[in-house]
Amino acid sequence: MSSSDPIEQTVQQSMTLIRRGIDELLVEEELANKLRRSAREGTPLRIKLGLDPTAPDLHLGHTVVLNKMRQLQDLGHQVIFLIGDFTASIGDPSGRNVTRPPLTPEQIRENAETYFRQASLVLNPERTEIRYNSVWSEALGTRGMVQLASRYTVARILERDDFTKRMKAGVPISVHEMLYPLMQGYDSVALQSDLELGGTDQKFNLLVGRELQREYGQEPQCVLTMPLLEGLDGVEKMSKSKGNYVGITEPANTMFAKVMSISDTMMWRYFTLLSFRSMDEIDQLKAECEAGRNPKEAKVLLARELVDRFHGAGASEAAVEDFELRARGGVPDEIEEVKLSPAPRGIVAVLRDSGLVPSASEAGRMLAQGGVRVDGSVVSDRGLELAAGTYVVQVGKRKFRRVVLG
Length: 406
Known about the structure:
Elements: H1 6-19, E1 24-26, H2 28-41, E2 46-51, H3 60-74, E3 78-83, H4 105-119, E4 128-132, H5 134-149, H6 154-157, H7 161-168, H8 175-191, E5 195-199, H9 203-215, E6 222-226, H10 252-260, H11 266-274, H12 279-290, H13 295-311, H14 315-327, E7 337-340, E8 345-346, H15 347-353, H16 360-368, E9 372-374, E10 377-378, E11 385-386, E12 389-395, E13 399-405
Parallel strand pairs: 2-3, 2-5, 3-4, 5-6, 7-13
Antiparallel strand pairs: 1-6, 8-11, 9-10, 9-12, 12-13
């Protein structure tokens, strides 16, 4: 087909955008053909993203795949935000060396509501189809579940990397965990998806969906995996449990300061995966920094974009002022207040329980480095106890809490 053909030009432009920042796309030519057919027939592709509502709050790492969904949505395709209320009751074993405990129906419902509300900060909610996989999964019944299980072999299931590792280590694998990839794959059959997105840790499950569609006589979906975003430490993947995350509902000032704390090198990965700027703009910005422009200026642009996206246009103005004030050693006007009891209370417990550090060991490290201040004075004694009262406690340059002990 001629490259001057309008449909072919549209397809190639779409593929360029789709490839941005991805880890893997299987199979590229199949997706290109789906796009050609979509353009000819005027029928949007059905793009599926499944999320088990296992945690109530989203961070920037979660938005990597949501950003890709938004790009596909803007190309005119039908985005399906699938809430795995049924699969969450099984527990996804991906990347785990122990059985994941299932959630209660109440936890699932609460988390699902929060998930979509926060995801709507990235997706266009009016153009997003919301589905719950309990609708067709529960309808399968015992007979349907057995018939589904007959379409995939145990040997194929055990090819999963995490299952293989657990078997070698002698760690038990429950039978219900083997059903998880089958149920996620069946979601693709029920939704007749053309393309499914997920993190790199979901690749096996996404491919199961592709195979099950073939078994059910459907055209197999393509699979697109997005990389797992490193956290603020630049090493481990972003995670609340590791304390290296940026929550998308955190205060604007906190979000801005956290983004500014990433390294100059990691900044470009954040630009690629999180920014809505074009790659040409990002490449130009990078070239300017390599030619001598202060990388901090580029980082400010990134932090401003993210703050304005999640907190509204103009929210970054106050965040910049707050950041600069803290950088000069000043105490911001607005500080989160935390009430703790009983008093007196050890400084290590105060730092941990106020959320200034993720653990007692980190509290000890910050104290030893002279990175803790109480009412402006440096504190290094791990044995210090604070009496009842109100204190401004600071960790590093940018973390503050007004701690009320009583």
